[in-house]
Write a structure and sequence with these properties.
Layout (H helix, E strand, L loop, with lengths): L6 H8 L4 H4 L8 H17 L3 H17 L2 H16 L6 H10 L2 H16 L2
C-alpha cells in the first residue's frame, strides 16, 4: 500500500515537471495539497491539449487510487476527480479523448462524478 508520505515521490517519478512545485510546501505532510498540485497540473495539460503529459498524470492518479491506503484514495476522490470532472467536454471528440485517458480503476468514479456534476448544474 502506498501511504500519504510516499505520494510526492510517486508523483515526481511519473511527472518530473512537478518536482519543484511539490517541494514548495511540506507536501509530505499534506496529502490534499499534494494531490491538488497533481490535479491542477493535469487540468492545465488537458486544457492545453497536451494529452501525452495529461495521460501520465492520469495514470499516476490511477496508480495512487489503486495502490493507495484509505487516506490516499480519499484524496484522489475528493481532490483529483472533481478537478478533472470540471473540464469542459465541448464535443464528441474531446469526450472520447478524455474518456480514453481516464484509467480503468477511476473510470466508474469519473463517470459517476460527471453525472452528479452535470445533474446539479
Amino acid at each position: 500500500m502506498i501511504n500519504q508520505y510516499e505520494v510526492p515521490a510517486c508523483i515526481e517519478d511519473a511527472v518530473p515537471a512537478l518536482r519543484k512545485a511539490l517541494h514548495q510546501f511540506p507536501a509530505i505532510f499534506h496529502i490534499y495539497d499534494t494531490v491538488s498540485c497533481l490535479s491542477e497540473y493535469t487540468d492545465k495539460q488537458l486544457r492545453e491539449q497536451n494529452f501525452q503529459v495529461a495521460g501520465k498524470c492520469m495514470q499516476v492518479a490511477g496508480k495512487l487510487y489503486e495502490r493507495g491506503n484509505g487516506v490516499v484514495r480519499e484524496a484522489i476522490v475528493r481532490v483529483f476527480l472533481p478537478t478533472i470532472s470540471n473540464i469542459p467536454l465541448v464535443d464528441a471528440v474531446s469526450r472520447v479523448r478524455m474518456y480514453s485517458l481516464v484509467p480503468d480503476v477511476l473510470y466508474a468514479l469519473y463517470i459517476q462524478h460527471q453525472l452528479t456534476e452535470n445533474g446539479s448544474r
